[in-house]
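Attaching the record inline, Q. Sequence:
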Amino acid sequence: MSLKLVVLADNRAGHRLKGAWAWSINIQFNGKSILFDAGGDPGLLEENASMLGVDLRSLDMVILSHHHRDHYGGLKAVADASPGITLYVPPGRIGRYKRLGFNVVMVKKPIWIDRNLLIVGPLYATSVQMYEISLALTYNGKIAVIVGCSHPGVDRIVSEALRLTGRKKATLVIGGFHSPPPEVLQNLASVAETICPTHCSGDESRDYLRRHYPEKFCEAFTGSVIEL
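Structure, as predicted:
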């Protein structure tokens, strides 16, 4: 079973790609193509996806971590490319997604989409008064966790993913960590083998992980491809 992750939108970008304050990642896993978050701009998502060889017309599902524009703003490009595709969202206002034509599924408890694909949450973040969902993928006895902005705490999200899947450590954690304090990064490092902070994680978080956990730290930005 193979897992390939392609970062389509992040604050930072590789050669010839466009960066923006946004987050979107394509997950190719177990014969499925999954879009996790859609960035903030439809045009940017379309252009980067095209350059990176990700066909928005061939997606099997879309998962939206939370209701902030830098994560849902690019969804129009997805709706145009894949009309009627299923969109999993946390509790909140969903009218905008229905108007775009998505088949919206509101996640009110953890959902096993199949035996290897788990939507984690929703977990509530008092700091933004909003629910957030994440994604856990189990493969070959391992687990990868994809997060959006981690408003509920990235360590809390990963701990919940491990509890639900019965795993002791995450092989990979990637996504926005929302500039967490050092103790959160320490908690995360105790349960994760490879850590890829993106989007809202902040330079301080990247520097902290690079200094204190160089064997666990990985760089990821628009155009990054990770294969496991």
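The mean pLDDT is 97. The domain at 3-227 is CATH 3.60.15.10 (Metallo-beta-lactamase; Chain A).

More tomorrow.
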